[in-house]
Write a structure and sequence with these properties.
By secondary structure, the chain is an alpha+beta fold. Helices cover about 30% and strands about 20% of the residues.
Length: about 350
């Protein structure tokens, strides 16, 4: 989630274990198309969102897509409709990190100061420096947002936050707790991680994303910048029943700046569900391994992925939210079943 002042991911982290535990034992098989359509139709009829696209992958690897609502008047949503995916971008950043580690370009425990300009004073505490893995596990000690984040346009809050402002904040900030001591969800931290990876790769985050993840997987309708084709299929976002403008997230692109469609998101989901068959190689599985607790019952974190232990099983997941969109990606490794949900409204879809 990237909303600057409310609906923090903490609410989702606290609620999700209870939601899962309150239900009957999780099924090994995915629900039928008719059951999913009924659920989606009820959600739209309630007015919570004008549109939903649901994608599912079963144990055999076959993908299904069900959609309801309109992308534009007279143009129904489908697998090619584009959405902002918000903080689901964070698991793409984790994939880039894993790829660069596998290539020997950096190490998880490298201090981030190693890759930032010498003029930036990265905060330290207790003789310890913030590392790449600290940023990816949300245990860096950095706050959720920098205190010099003051959007000129609340309707597009990240558009004018610059790299220099991020550097200025880092150079002046004093950590209030030890690095690695506690989980705190930080858009700043993962935005900084994406920025550091881009510096190490010698190109923009968007270019690095395309080179390391999107091109190998054949994901042609995903990126930070909208191509003309992506713009043609872009579903307008909504908040409180009103259409709202999209968000332009550049400096924090690695934390929430990606746009995508269901067709591509199912490719990415499949690569995570079946890493041994992925063009990215088995290295992507490194991102799912538990690395730190979150402080919420049965909930841990890997490299940006959250890992929920419930009813004797494990769910690997992340959600996302911007000003007019909500997204969710998750899968059960033991059962090889997973789903993606994309909505063009900011109302939560986590319960689905």
């Amino acid at each position: 989630m990237l909303r600057p002042s409310r609906r923090l991911i903490a609410a989702a982290l606290a609620a999700l274990p209870a939601l899962v535990a309150a239900q009957r034992p999780l099924r090994a098989q995915l629900p039928s198309d008719s059951a999913v359509r009924a659920l989606v139709t009820r959600r739209i009829q309630s007015g919570a969102t004008p549109g939903l696209v649901v994608g599912l992958i079963g144990p055999e690897g076959k993908a299904r897509v069900l959609a309801s609502g309109d992308e534009k008047p007279g143009k129904p949503l489908d697998a090619r409709s584009e959405f902002e995916i918000g903080s689901v971008s964070k698991v793409f950043t984790a994939s880039i990190l894993a790829d660069m580690v596998a290539r020997g370009e950096l190490k998880l425990d490298d201090p981030i100061a190693k890759y930032l300009p010498a003029t930036v004073r990265v905060p330290e505490r207790g003789g310890r420096q913030i590392t790449l893995v600290d940023l990816s596990t949300q245990t860096s000690g950095l706050p959720r947002m920098p205190d010099n984040f003051h959007p000129a346009d609340p309707g597009n809050p990240y558009a004018d936050y610059s790299v220099q402002q991020m550097y200025d904040f880092l150079s002046s900030y004093r950590l209030t707790r030890d690095i690695g001591a506690r989980y705190e969800y930080s858009n700043l931290g993962v935005g900084l991680l994406g920025h550091v990876l881009a510096l190490r790769g010698g190109k923009s985050y968007d270019a690095l994303l395309h080179e390391r993840i999107l091109k190998p997987l054949g994901m042609e309708h995903t990126g930070v910048a909208l191509t003309p084709e992506m713009s043609e299929h872009f579903a307008p976002g909504h908040s409180g029943g009103r259409q709202v403008a999209g968000w332009d997230i550049v400096t924090f692109a690695g934390a929430g700046g990606i746009r995508s469609d269901m067709e591509d998101m199912l490719v990415f989901l499949g690569a995570n569900m079946f890493p041994g068959k992925s063009r990215l190689g088995g290295e992507i599985a490194v991102t799912h391994a538990i690395r730190a607790p979150t402080g919420s019952p049965n909930l841990s974190i890997g490299l940006n992925w959250h890992v929920l232990a419930a009813l004797g099983d494990t769910i690997v997941w992340h959600n996302g939210q911007t000003g007019g969109y909500h997204s969710f990606i998750g899968f059960r490794p033991s059962r090889h079943i997973g789903l993606v949900i994309l909505s063009n409204a900011d109302a939560s879809i986590d319960d689905i």
